[in-house]
Design goal:
Layout (H helix, E strand, L loop, with lengths): L2 E10 L9 E7 L33 E3 L2 H12 L7 E5 L9 H9 L3 E6 L11 E4 L11 E9 L6 H4 L3 E9 L5 H14 L4 E2 L3 H5 L3
Parallel strand pairs: 2-4, 4-5, 5-6, 6-7, 7-8, 8-9
Antiparallel strand pairs: 1-2, 1-3
Length: about 210
């Protein structure tokens, strides 16, 4: 399988339950809920995405012909040392490309694999940490994992139903739009009223890192 990768870079995980951890981010190109082009945003299922996942022209991006080669590139970017290796696979929608061959190859390089997905495609086995971020208007079929992260507010999100899904952690994250301060307040108020949920903030944006 050929993998289309937008970018690969070393950073800190900025959000969710693993915030603050050193990680290599592997961002796949492509998504099934938005083309990634601004002219299509108004008609997309997910209209608030803040990520560039179009093409393969990002840092260390490109087409990788096999899983071993891509896993080797991730290991190269991590650098020396095999302890506590973490790769965060995201997109776009990573489940369009993530397969068991790449999971095995990354494990062989000593990586713990975290994945961030919209949940509309079933996850392959072998993922060590699965974060699902549901998007209103889509059909979420992956209803179990380690972390459910709901961007807030989202009109049409049935968060009460989500509470019955099989996740270890339930997170609310303020939507990063022009009205971010209002969204922060709405998110804080939500968590104060619904203690099953925990607040997640995008600390990498506050820190000014990728």
């Amino acid at each position: 399988m050929t993998y289309a990768v937008k970018e690969i870079f070393l950073t800190l995980q900025g959000e969710g339950m693993q915030a603050g951890k050193k990680a290599v981010f592997l961002r796949f190109a492509g998504c099934n809920l938005w083309s990634g082009r601004e002219e299509d945003r108004a008609t997309a299922i997910c209209q608030f995405c803040d990520t560039d996942f179009v093409g393969t022209n990002g840092q260390n991006g490109g087409k990788f012909n096999d899983a071993k080669g891509l896993a080797g590139k991730v290991a190269e970017i991590w650098g020396e040392g095999r302890s506590e290796r973490l790769v965060v696979i995201t997109g776009g929608e990573p489940m369009l490309q993530l397969d068991t061959a790449l999971i095995h190859a990354l494990h062989a390089e000593g990586f713990r694999i975290a994945v961030e997905s919209n949940g509309t495609i079933e996850a392959p086995s072998g993922i060590d940490w699965l974060c699902i971020s549901p998007k209103a208007g889509s059909e979420v079929i992956q209803r179990q994992g380690h972390e459910l992260k709901l961007v807030w507010p989202q009109t049409g999100s049935d968060w009460r139903d989500m509470e019955s899904w099989d996740f270890q952690n339930f997170l609310i994250q303020p939507m990063d739009r022009a009205n971010i301060k209002d969204n922060m307040k709405a998110s804080v108020d939500f968590v104060l009223s619904n203690p099953k949920w925990r607040l997640s903030v995008q600390s990498h944006k506050w820190l000014g890192i990728d």
